[in-house]
Amino acid sequence: MKLAGILIAIVVLALVLPFFVPAGGPGESAESSLPWQVEADGTGGSRVFGLQPGTSTLADVKQRFGADIDVGILAAPGETGMLEGYYDNVSLGFVTAKLVVTLDAAPQTVASMRERSADSEYMESANATRRMHLHADDLAAIERMPIRAISVIPALSLDDAAVVQRFGEPAERIAMSETQTHLLYPQRGLDILVDAKRKELLQYVAPRDFDKLLRAPLKAQKPAAAG
Q1: Whole-number Å distance between alpha carbons of 152 and 61
Q2: Is 140 left (phi over 0), alpha (psi -120 to 50) or beta?
Q3: pTM for the full predicted model
Q4: Which of 111, 117, 125, 144 is most buried, by CB atoms within 10 Å?
Q5: N-terminal to C-terminal alpha carbon distance within the chain
Q6: Would you say residue 115 has pLDDT above 70?
């Protein structure tokens, strides 16, 4: 029993320790694809995981993470929906995660693709969200469409202290409930949702789009969430 306990402790330590070891060690660079390695270009853009939100295309994403990406339109009832690509499992350095890219598609473009969609399926959610599969012609057409945002759900749960240790103090915190807090890093174009009940969510956009795409929607949601 003692040996089993030691082995479990070693495994847990191996998973958690990388989030507390200071960044910038030997051989580590901005191209290492770790979640905290965000390189701002000083002109409103950024690079993370070898991609540039707002500039890199779906083709660039597939070249970086592979062609096995599930692309479709996600829409709740009464919404036009968003065009997204989903990887169930990717390696970001030594971090394993689910990864979603949101494509920069105009609402009318998404609506047209919905009309040509061959089929759809309901997602496991409380709001009856559906995922619509694209027509083959649309799948080919979106290859050069830029990505608006990158969302990451790490396999390892993080608390507030672990996030601050690795990413630094956020510029702002927005508490949505007793268990959910958003940590905002506008200069990196990054919002980290720390959730005591679920996996954390990291959202990356170009810093120039941070207020419009991340901060403003959170501010608009806060009264309803807190009330």
Answers
A1: 14
A2: alpha
A3: 0.82
A4: 117
A5: 48
A6: yes
Q: For tokens 């030594």, what's the residue?
A: 94
Catalogue the E-assigned strands of the chain: 39-40, 46-47, 70-75, 82-92, 95-103, 120-122, 130-133, 147-154, 172-175, 180-185, 190-195, 201-204
Q: Is the pLDDT of residue 123 over 80?
A: no
Query: For residues 47 and 30, is the Cβ–Cβ distance under 8 A?
Result: yes
202-213 confidence digits (pLDDT tens): 999 999 999 999
**How many whole angstroms separate alpha carbon 131 and alpha carbon 125?**
11
> What does the DSSP 8-state code read for residue 57?
B
Cα separations (Å) of 100 from 43, 71, 158? Answer: 25, 10, 19
Tokens, residue 195: 């959730």
Q: Tokens 């390892």 appear where? A: 156
**Structure-block tokens of residue 226:** 């807190």
